[in-house]
Here is the input.
Amino acid sequence: MPDRATLQAGPRPGRTAALWALPPIAALAVVFLYPLALVVRQSLTPEDGGGPSAAPYTTVLTATSFQDALTTTVLIAVGATLGALLLGLALSLVIAFVPFPGGKALARFIDIFLAFPSFLITLALLFLYGTVGIANGLWTDVTGAAHGPLDFLHTPWGVLLAEVTYFTPFVMRPLLAAFSQVETAQVEAAGSLGARPWRIVRTVILPEALPSLAAGGALVLVLCLNEFGIVLFTGAKNVVTLPMLVYTKAILDGDYTGACVVAVLNIALSVALYALYRTVMSRTTGTTRRTSPRTPAKNTPTPARTAPVPALAAGGADRARA
Here is the structure.
């Protein structure tokens, strides 16, 4: 048997774990924390020099340009999130429960769509609905008019359409994963008892998908708050969001202190929303665990999944399994 001195001389698990954690912490500090610290430091440095001061924050917070940009950012982010939630929920229900040719291929395409850059979707919308796009070109060819009727992509409505189009798959991906876990036996039982399709969706399917819906909505809200490429590529000069204000102050005006102040405030807003999302999700998960049924005994047979049931459009449901 080894003596006490030999045991004490051996490596300690806690110390070994700390040593393994040092390299990623050092890399994170160099790549992320140090640049962020420089931004915060610059935001506290007045243009006329001197020591750290909160005067730059007072100047930016009281400026009309910042207040307008904040209002525009919040309105567009909330509108795009609601639009993506509604459209993503509708499309996910169709893909998951209504069989149609190409449903599986469409579900696979959603994964590919998540890798697309945002400006690519904006350019596609410009080709379709821009002032010299396909839709206006067809209109001028048929009517002989000088220009087409569509000229909304350079307005907040165009930015809203582009963000809803781009961020809807971010809602659909977790929803499709949640719908794949819904027991078809529950949907069949509700349909056999005479429940209409919308009641089946409301009472059977949606309760299982609410955490995924909240997760997708929170992700889209944070991404919309920080979206820059869509606003830039639509050419909406009158739409100034917080990321656009950072770009304007830093690149066009040369006001690096003001740009850092807006950037820090934008980060704080995003972190606050993420913390709120984590709080809501933890409470939702805790409530679900408290109200969930007990785990069946070992000798109790687990009910097997049934075969796909009729489509929701016909009063039942049919899962297009990936």
About this structure: The two ends are 57 Å apart (CA to CA).
